[in-house]
Amino acid sequence: MVNSKPDELRETESKRVKVYILEENEWKDTGTGFCVGKVNGADNDKALNGKHSDFHRDLAAYLVVNDEGIPDKTLLLSKLEGNIEYQRQEETLIVWKDLSGQDIALSFEESTGCDALCEFIIQIQKTTETNISLVAVRSNDDGLGSVHEIITGPVNLPSNEVDQDEKVLMDSLKILNENTAFEYLRCETMEFVLKNSYIATLIQVFDKAESKHALRKLLLLSNIVKTLTLYNHRDILEQMVDDDHIMGIVGILEYDTEFPLSKANHREYLLHSGPHFKEVVPLKSEDMKSIIKKTYRLQFLKDVVLVRFLDDHSFNLISEVILDLQNCIIDFIQTEPFLSRLMALFAEKNRIENKRDGIRMLHQCVLITKYLEHSEKSKFFKALVRAGLFRIFDYAFGVETDSGIRILATDMVICIIEHDILLINTVQNELLNQHGVLDQEQHLPKRTSDTSQSALSSDVSLLSILSKILLTDKNLGLKEQVVQALNTLLHPEGCMGIDSDYNDTGNMDIVMNLSDGRGNGITNEALMDNVSFQMTEYFNNFYSQVAPLLFAPLINDSFGNTDDDILLIYLVKLVSFIATEHNRRISREFILENDILVNISKLIAPRHMLQLRLTVVRCLKGIVCLNDEYYHRYLISENLYEPIFGLLRENIHEDNLANSCLLDFFRTVSSQCLQAQELQSTDKKNFIILNKHLVKKYRDDLIAIDYVPFTQEMIRIYDEVEGTNTLTKTETQITFNSEGKRTFAELSEAKITSKENNGEETLTFKRAMEKLTTAQPPKSIKKDFLSNES
Amino acid sequence: MKLDETITLLRQGKHVSEETVFQLCLQAQELLMNEANVTHVDTPVTICGDIHGQLHDLLTLFDKSGGVEQNKYVFLGDFVDRGFYSLESFLLLLCYKLRYPDRITMIRGNHETRQITKVYGFYDEIVRKYGNSNVWRYCCEVFDYLSLGAIINDRIFCVHGGLSPDVMTVNQIRAIDRKQEVPHEGAMCDLLWSDPDEVNTWSLSPRGAGFLFGKNEVDQFLHTNDFELIARAHQLVMEGYKEMFDGGLVTVWSAPNYCYRCGNVAAVLRIEDTLDRNYMIFEAVPAQDDVGNAIIPTKKPQMDYFL
């Protein structure tokens, strides 16, 4: 008999249990026994002979408890029937009210026993008694109140008929809303939606309703679709945006209860006016096409159609799905044939519009990497460079005339170098090592002369290209971008490449390729050593090859007309940047030898735009704050504070930005002097000397600034110092030195001890060096040391 | 550049060319450079709190408070981020300022920085509307020129966030070179980030920047500078405004139904010649096409897509 039943309806094992019954509001213990879930055919013969599909209907299920002392004595026989709600309370209790109204509780000895019987109830609900339910009740963490969670039970589902009136739709909406409340109901509903093509049904209903202008139906449908998005189910989202459903879905969502009198035009937008999917290079994969379209449509849903509606949860889910699809796309693009087909677009004979589309497409690829993981990003960018990204830059910066396209190309450069400055050079070098120089030249016959030269060394070709754009291109947006790219490329810490992924698989990949290509093992340490060498080379190259070109307008004193003020602002900011961030000796030598400070201080003259004048003041302030003796002497001996006081006199009685900018300078000087006095330290003697210079020359101007305390403070400090005999002597000497005319050549001849030199490194440079030195030395060097010792 | 034309475009939430934005930003810089870190304003004037890119609500604000043709306004910052029309809201205020220089005072909020706008929506909005981030850079440059505070009739101090332990007198603010990204600490940071709270003294702010300050600090600041009120924004108030510390400080919030879902009302505070305070409450308007509040936000992607 038992064997003839389906597996899931087999009797349960017996579990030890206490049976309680509620009488007059008290739970009465009726004894202890063993509980089983039993299924009996209502009519055994019929069950055996009847048609299989009727089989379940004829079964009756019971919870049976037999006394543990007297197995024949039945303590409980309760049928699972009607709409009984079983509650599982905590781990070991099952409580219910049977159809006669009797409250019954089973208290299991072990939770596994309770599990078994609950499982039985679930099986019965799913097969024969679909209207019973099982609810788990747990007390809250705080001990107050309780949480109900439906484990199994009847699920109300929306109608799947093609003909639905308003009332049916209203019911569906209500049901879908209610079903979001419990995990179980959500899952059942989701299964229903996916298995029964419910979304397709809705679209059919929608088409009819729209043709009949049944506005209320349309609004209900819109709310139903919105509610479905709140189920946060990936498959449903993806179904909504596939080719079969997208138009229907955005059509439905054109109607909105919040704006019942108007209608959006999503369908028109997707079909006609909006952007279209364009295959620049044949994808040769229908799956990929569909993924690309889905990604776009999901973004459209997220950013436009549902933007006012999504809660954080659904917003995040859509974002996650998009991210996942984008990952697929990026993976696909890296597969070899596609990238090389794309790069082939840039062959000379190709139409210019194709090349432009190619750049547009690549730009979009690079943009979507924004949210990728670091190593994934490295992998993709490396693949791009290997496939010949430089050919594209050659085209964009050498041939292309449309600034829109050039802007996109620069944007790509920025994305890649901000991710990892060394990446482009590293991969280029790797290619050179693999193919040999001649081979490389053949691969890239279209290189402009200046890039082909420098591409071979520690590479500043990108810097040259960008500098040229900054100086010559008329497009302001492009200039903005180029300055950002230059800042990134010239940042010493970034150039060390330490912050990037030196140990990730991507770079190991390079190491492997290198060793394969050359047939000798190159260790990570050697690579590191190479990086340090490269960086020194890189900056030397910058100062010898690029900086004279980049800063030419500041060197030749050929500022041109005032239209160039915007360009000059960029350049002065870059001066400020290299002075404060680069190795002090190299940058200072460059700045002073080329008279850059003398020239830029001329830009404080009134004929220039105020933004530029103040940018120069800030640049000089920044250099003063470096507390660098050479700069300090130079600024005083070249009389470069004069234009600053000219600007002050224009604004001395104004309360404006120029005035504040200058006050900030005086506040810095006075507070540095106060510190010098308090600490009795010679570290800040530059500021004492500066203060002396300023008060001596500009006492009247400083007195006129009577609305802040620190200008008066500057005068007081000066008078005090001058009045103090002990200090006067040394001070005079220093002053003599500093105010006596000395050329820069003399300055640089001054012996600089290695200790001073260290002190002059910028913070970022020092940090970078520290990281380098903590890396293990190349093994070859270790070996040498050992052999020397022995 | 035709200012009135641009204003019309902006009021409808329509696209403004990159070149126009650049020129607008450059002119705005020139105007803002002549302003003090703390500018002086006369009554009658209307004080407005956070806007957060809710262009249509900004238009309502002007409608219901008399309009810029007739009235003076002080905006307490946070023009951008969160809403769909950060660019239009900010540019509209710049245009009004260029058009009626003495009627609009704009104070910098903690969202008017490169770092914050990259995270909270303005940057993404620009990339979506223009396909690149240049317009964002132009606007950020203008942010650096915005004032840090304002004083009405020498009696009311306006600021975005609140007080700073480094600022006892308003004059101390004068020596800040404000043309910079908002620093992570110091007076300039605190003015934009601090919040009032029931604390006895300067306390750590849960925001990670600025301080919490209490009645003591407010009383002392008001007394030292001979002020009667600190007007600030920076915190959502469901009722639109909230006075604290026996009326010594008020928070004004001007973005109704913040983020299009908070359900709050908004307020502006009108200061009369007598220094009487009149609060005007307004709600979010239902959306309409062609008045800067089309059902579809202009976040639409502009370009063909290959991916």
From TrEMBL, chain A:
Serine/threonine-protein phosphatase 4 regulatory subunit 3-like central domain segment(s): 174-720
Gene Ontology CC entries for this record: nucleoplasm; protein phosphatase 4 complex
Predominant localisation class: nucleus
Localisation: Nucleus
Keywords, sorted A to Z: Nucleus
Pfam name, any one: EVH1_PP4R3
MF term (GO), any: protein phosphatase activator activity
GO BP terms: DNA damage response
Organism of origin: Lachancea nothofagi CBS 11611
Taxonomic path: Eukaryota, Fungi, Dikarya, Ascomycota, Saccharomycotina
Comp. bias (Basic and acidic residues): 781-790
This protein's record includes keyword Disulfide bond: no
Record-given protein name: LANO_0H04324g1_1
Domain annotation PP4R3 EVH1-like: ranges: 15-126
Region (Disordered): 770-790
UniProtKB/TrEMBL annotation, chain B:
Entry GO MF terms: metal ion binding; protein serine/threonine phosphatase activity
Enzyme class: hydrolase
PROSITE patterns hit by this protein: SER_THR_PHOSPHATASE
SUPFAM superfamilies referenced in this protein's UniProt entry, alphabetically: Metallo-dependent phosphatases
GO BP terms in the entry: DNA repair; regulation of TORC1 signaling
Serine/threonine specific protein phosphatases domain residues: 107-112
GO cellular component: protein serine/threonine phosphatase complex
Keywords: Hydrolase, Manganese, Metal-binding, Protein phosphatase
Reactions this protein catalyses: O-phospho-L-threonyl-[protein] + H2O = L-threonyl-[protein] + phosphate; O-phospho-L-seryl-[protein] + H2O = L-seryl-[protein] + phosphate
Cofactor field: Mn(2+)
EC number(s) per entry: 3.1.3.16
Keyword Hydrolase among UniProt keywords: yes
Similarity-based family: Belongs to the PPP phosphatase family.
Name of the protein in its database record: Serine/threonine-protein phosphatase
Annotated organism of origin: Lachancea nothofagi CBS 11611
Lineage, top ranks: Eukaryota, Fungi, Dikarya, Ascomycota, Saccharomycotina
